[in-house]
């Protein structure tokens, strides 16, 4: 019986009377579970189990609506679980409903068939007939095939008076296979036959029935079959992980060969006692590590003072820089940026009062200094072996991600760990070409040990992945890939090759750095007698070498005259220590704080702009699911 839906206004008095009557009756009647406004009188399932592991299903459902409903919905799972580790993606296709309107959608891992019309409601008996096909993929076992099919799912929310099923097999079963067929019935996960379903099993069919089935009950058929029973089932073994594993190994081997073909750069230091005449400390600091650091630019202040461009006056809690009018300003672009940042509007500046514009000047100077070492004066080049190492790493990560017969979501942990391990190994082992010349890494062995530890951790998780029945690539092949990819990462710094320009300037700079680091006090005494400002001329360069403290300690017993361009706060006594303290505290700290404030403002501005812009159980197997009314 169909009824056209109408909108009407409820009478308040009638509603109140109805609620009052309901409350009076509530205490004297038994309470029953809500059947959803319908029950199922009869449920027929007819299916054909094809030899390619697809099932053509026809369901005839006799429903009795006790209240007005639009129709029913049918949920069919798109995943088949055998156990915790073994699962299969199903395809539900060729869906059709006879003589009723319907819509098909997917929701929460189910294919949902909503039958009925939103414009009409129905009450009383109604028969629904629907057909569909379940496509089950090839199983993961090499020694057997199996059937696993729920003729009734555990998600029906009402009672079923009678259910019957008839399953026809396209390929005949053997006597042994017939005896292996089991029926599980009852609540989800049950491994017994609580509904007392008595199957009739022949070589070509299984049929049976059950009566008085409660809500949330299931009936499932399970049986082990001979290997090769199903032929032409949908393939689950993807070639993707093998393809990317092969690419990872090829790229890794090429990078490895390339790393061994590249000759190691040998720079013979030329002994030099004096700073280079044509390079300021910022330029030298950039050359020795191929990076423009804050300390490189700050070293220009004592450098300018020793050259007569400015004077330094130390107060109790501040430092005052004063421009010298009798000297032309610096001509190099990066020097101009900082010099003008200090003295553009005034001739004297307190470091504690630096404006935010000084931070911008430092950024501009950094950019100018990077530009200085480009084209003909480029310090190094990246060999293409670096790129093939990155490609090998990416291919190995993709292989780990797609090494599954089910879903790549299952491999996210291993994939994230692989990405983290490879990237961290690269960070640990990478260094600029200049760094390999000027700063031999004393932590190299520790970094290699950490890298090996990351490989071992990654290998353990990949072993766990490959130990799963869902894995495609054997563990041995995966380990070959990981090792072949990891070795070029260990050698990643070899792909950073120094330029001819670097080779031309490095010998004297390396000799000068070695002297600053290893000079003996008697030798420094002689040089200081020849040039009383020797300590002050060298310390800006010692700062960019990272040797300013060592340089200062060497002069702890050597008398130093206070230069006329420096007014120390400690007027009674004076030594190299007081000058060093001024550089590392009175000068460094306020400039560093100013730069931090500037960078914080820049990040806030950027953020603001971005903000605006194996076995069986009841309810398992293919098919099943359930439904309800709407």
UniProtKB/TrEMBL annotation:
<dbReference type="Pfam" id="PF09972">
    <property type="entry name" value="DUF2207"/>
</dbReference>
<keyword id="KW-1133">Transmembrane helix</keyword>
<feature type="transmembrane region" description="Helical">
    <location>
        <begin position="386"/>
        <end position="406"/>
    </location>
</feature>
<protein>
    <submittedName>
        <fullName>DUF2207 domain-containing protein</fullName>
    </submittedName>
</protein>
<dbReference type="Pfam" id="PF20990">
    <property type="entry name" value="DUF2207_C"/>
</dbReference>
<feature type="domain" description="DUF2207">
    <location>
        <begin position="39"/>
        <end position="183"/>
    </location>
</feature>
<feature type="domain" description="Predicted membrane protein YciQ-like C-terminal">
    <location>
        <begin position="275"/>
        <end position="555"/>
    </location>
</feature>
<feature type="transmembrane region" description="Helical">
    <location>
        <begin position="469"/>
        <end position="492"/>
    </location>
</feature>
<dbReference type="InterPro" id="IPR048389">
    <property type="entry name" value="YciQ-like_C"/>
</dbReference>
<feature type="signal peptide">
    <location>
        <begin position="1"/>
        <end position="33"/>
    </location>
</feature>
<keyword id="KW-0732">Signal</keyword>
<feature type="transmembrane region" description="Helical">
    <location>
        <begin position="412"/>
        <end position="433"/>
    </location>
</feature>
<feature type="transmembrane region" description="Helical">
    <location>
        <begin position="240"/>
        <end position="261"/>
    </location>
</feature>
<dbReference type="InterPro" id="IPR018702">
    <property type="entry name" value="DUF2207"/>
</dbReference>
<feature type="transmembrane region" description="Helical">
    <location>
        <begin position="445"/>
        <end position="463"/>
    </location>
</feature>
<keyword id="KW-0472">Membrane</keyword>
<keyword id="KW-0812">Transmembrane</keyword>
């Amino acid at each position: 019986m169909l009824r056209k839906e109408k909108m009407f206004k409820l009478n308040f008095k009638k509603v109140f009377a109805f609620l009052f009557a309901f409350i009076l009756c509530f205490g004297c009647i038994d309470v029953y579970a809500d059947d959803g406004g319908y029950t199922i009188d009869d449920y027929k399932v007819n299916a054909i189990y094809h030899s390619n592991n697809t099932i053509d299903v026809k369901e005839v459902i006799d429903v009795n609506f006790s209240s007005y409903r639009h129709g029913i919905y049918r949920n069919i799972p798109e995943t088949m679980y055998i156990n915790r580790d073994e699962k299969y993606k199903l395809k539900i296709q060729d869906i059709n409903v006879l003589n009723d309107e319907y819509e098909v959608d997917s929701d929460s891992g189910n294919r949902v068939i909503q039958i009925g019309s939103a414009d009409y409601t129905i009450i009383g008996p109604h028969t629904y007939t629907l057909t569909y096909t379940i496509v089950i993929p090839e199983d993961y076992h090499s020694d057997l095939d199996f059937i696993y099919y729920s003729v009734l799912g555990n998600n029906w929310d009402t009672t079923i008076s009678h259910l019957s099923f008839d399953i026809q097999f396209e390929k005949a079963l053997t006597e042994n296979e017939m005896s292996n067929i089991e029926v599980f019935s009852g609540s989800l996960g049950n491994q017994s036959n609580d509904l007392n379903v008595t199957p009739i099993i022949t070589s070509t069919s299984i049929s049976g029935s059950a009566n008085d089935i409660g809500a949330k009950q299931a009936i499932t058929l399970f049986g082990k079959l001979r290997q090769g029973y199903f032929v032409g089932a949908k393939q689950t073994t993807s070639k993707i992980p093998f393809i990317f594993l092969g690419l990872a190994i090829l790229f890794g081997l090429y990078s490895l060969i390339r790393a061994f073909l590249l000759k190691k750069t040998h720079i013979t230091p030329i002994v030099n006692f004096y700073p280079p005449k044509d390079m300021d400390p910022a330029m030298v600091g950039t050359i020795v590590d191929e990076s423009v650091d804050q300390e490189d630019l700050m070293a220009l202040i004592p450098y300018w003072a020793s050259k007569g461009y400015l004077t330094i006056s130390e107060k109790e809690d501040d430092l005052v820089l004063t421009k010298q009018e009798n000297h032309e300003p610096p001509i190099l672009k990066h020097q101009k940026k900082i010099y003008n940042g200090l003295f553009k509007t005034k001739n004297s500046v307190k470091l504690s009062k630096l404006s935010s514009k000084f931070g911008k000047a430092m950024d501009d100077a950094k950019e100018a200094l990077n530009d200085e070492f480009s084209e003909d004066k480029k310090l190094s080049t990246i060999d293409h072996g670096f790129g093939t190492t990155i490609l090998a790493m990416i291919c190995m990560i993709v292989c780990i991600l797609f090494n599954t017969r089910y879903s790549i979501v299952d491999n996210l942990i291993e994939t994230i760990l692989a990405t983290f391990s490879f990237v961290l190994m690269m960070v640990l082992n990478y260094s600029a070409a200049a760094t390999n010349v000027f700063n031999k890494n004393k932590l190299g062995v520790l970094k290699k040990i950490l890298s090996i530890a990351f490989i071992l951790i990654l290998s353990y998780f990949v072993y766990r992945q490959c130990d799963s029945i869902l894995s495609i690539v054997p563990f041995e092949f995966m380990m070959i890939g990981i090792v072949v990819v990891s070795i070029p990462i260990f050698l990643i710094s070899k792909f950073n090759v120094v330029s001819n320009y670097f080779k031309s300037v490095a010998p004297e700079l390396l000799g000068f750095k070695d002297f600053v680091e290893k000079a003996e006090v008697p030798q420094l005494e002689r040089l200081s007698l020849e040039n009383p400002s020797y300590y002050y001329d060298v310390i800006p360069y010692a700062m960019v070498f990272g040797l300013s403290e060592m340089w200062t300690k060497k002069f702890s017993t050597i008398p130093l005259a206070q230069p006329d361009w420096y007014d120390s706060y400690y007027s009674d006594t004076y030594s190299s220590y007081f000058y060093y303290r001024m550089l590392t505290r009175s000068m460094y700290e306020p400039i560093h704080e100013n730069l931090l404030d500037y960078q914080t403002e820049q990040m806030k501005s950027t953020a603001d702009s971005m903000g605006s812009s194996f076995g069986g159980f009841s309810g398992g197997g293919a098919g099943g699911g359930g439904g309800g009314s709407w």
